[in-house]
Amino acid sequence: MEVIKPALTNLQAHRLLYCLVQLRYIPKKTNGESYSVPGLLRRYTPAHWDDYNSRDIREMCAEQILRTTCIICDEPMSKTTTGDHLIPLSRGGKEGLPNYIALCKSHNSSKGAKDFVEWWTGKGWKLEQSHPDVLCMYTRLRYQLCRDSNILDFAAPDYLVEALRSEILNQPGPDRKAILISSGLST
Ligand SMILES: [Zn+2]
Description:
2 strands; globular; binds zinc ion
């Protein structure tokens, strides 16, 4: 697909990621039809990214923290668990509850020092199979990290570009077009 070039900047990758996350939250109409994706995506511009859904983000974090089972396998979490980080501290992730992901001991050690999307897609799982709140928290965190480290204009990592390419190719044609237009990758 010519519009998703092999190299995307972190900013371009995040535009796509935000669109995909938003799509996960779009409810169906009462008659079961989908809303118009272009109209809905227009409401979410980079200006919203940093503080967007800040109340919802708090609720999402709280919900994740209150989980008593692993997000992958539902194994009960040990009472002394510290969970894991969506973005490892060694990769610039911050200490704190917004960076928390509930993983059992075995999934925790499988994730290791990878970031959430790198680990998830490395397992062969699709982004759309991930918990929407977890992906939303990850998206916001990674955007803030890139912004604060001044690397928004740098090339996005291959694992992220590959994950986005595969998710976008899976979208129905009109939605795919809307995502690419909203992300500034197509006109
Ligand atoms: Zn597990």
